[in-house]
Amino acid sequence: MSRFWSPIVATLSPYVAGEQPRIDDLVKLNTNENPYGPSPKALAAMRAAVADSLKLYPDPTALALRQAIARRHGVAPDEVFVGNGSDEVLAHAFAALLKHDRPLLHPDITYSFYPTYCRLFGIAAEEIPLRDDFTVDLADYDRPCGAIILPNPNAPTGIGLPLAAIEALLAGHPDQPVVIDEAYVDFGGESAVPLTRGHDNLLVVHTLSKSRSLAGLRVGYAIGQRPLIEALERVKDSFNSYPLDRVAQAGAAAAIDDAEWFDETRGRVIETRGRLTGALRQRGFEVLPSQANFVFARHPDHEGAALAGALRERAVLVRHFAKPRIADFLRITIGTPEECDRLVAALEEIV
Ligand code: PMP
Questions:
Q1: Distance, CA of 132 to CA of 109 (rounded, Å)
Q2: Which end of the chain is more exposed for a tag (fewer CB within 10 A), N or C?
Q3: What does this protein need as cofactor (predicted)?
Q4: Does residue 205 have its Cβ closer than 6 Å to ligand 1?
Q5: pLDDT 10s digits, 119-141
Q6: Ligand 1 centre distance from Cα of residue 120 (Å)
Q7: Phi and psi (nearest 5°) for 126?
Q8: What is the arrangement of strands in the sheet containing 27-29, beginning at the earlier edge strand?
Q9: 208 and 323: one domain?
């Protein structure tokens, strides 16, 4: 604390990163990375960008990348906004679209950055509790508010909402921005992007960190009708007129274009998720139905923190949350089949 700090800074906590160990032998299932790595075509495009063009400034409009994203989703390039990871895209959305006199609604168990951004931007937030089975009850969102943000599938539960439910939510809130964070949608969820055509209040946010295995590159994007995208552009331009560096623009565009690698690797993740869910249930775990690249699971006889600690002693990292209602749970990233086997073998020694 310093007398030079604004009161908002005093309420913010420094980011505590998930462990990023360097020890090769650790099984790292704690930060929802994708074990298969980026598309070989994306790697080649990034190598070429490094070799040929780093003396030049990047394209300030990221046109080729926005065109690739637009082709993939069947929208126009000017309905696409790109940024340094979906975290930055979300931050711009909070700054650009949320009002200060009415609260933002979000689930009480959800991505932890939403309440942080609310504090940072001075926006009131109202947490809407999940049902007992950890699903989102959209009837509870039928109340006066300034905006709504939902991850679909939700994190860290992994549970998704069907498109019809999102459509009903949009119809009930025509005058508020509704942000759907689809960080994990490619692992079995239903994307709301097609709804952007008919709903001028919908912004859908995606990341290349999960299904494209490019967490280290920091690329995310938003899709919505032109006025919402323009609002994000205005905020971005006031920070930095370059949305992404040249390597990121080249690699992300090639990754988006490589549908074959995308389908093959996400298919492998989905298959391994099914196998891991079965193995955990066999060992007595309750596993929530996941549409993401992680599972959220608890064991009736073991505390979450103790389990995470015992796994760590066996060189397996998983994520544990201290929040009371979910303190029994572990969030386990879907790794390769071999990594998941090592997790299950470690659990056999513990539970
Ligand atoms: N939204 C959700 C729900 C997430 O879990 C994450 C990843 N932690 C993000 C957004 C941000 O991802 P990135 O900034 O890597 O695009």
A1: 12
A2: N
A3: pyridoxal 5'-phosphate
A4: no
A5: 999 999 999 999 999 999 999 99
A6: 18
A7: -120, 120
A8: 27-29, 316-320, 329-333, 294-298, 286-287
A9: no
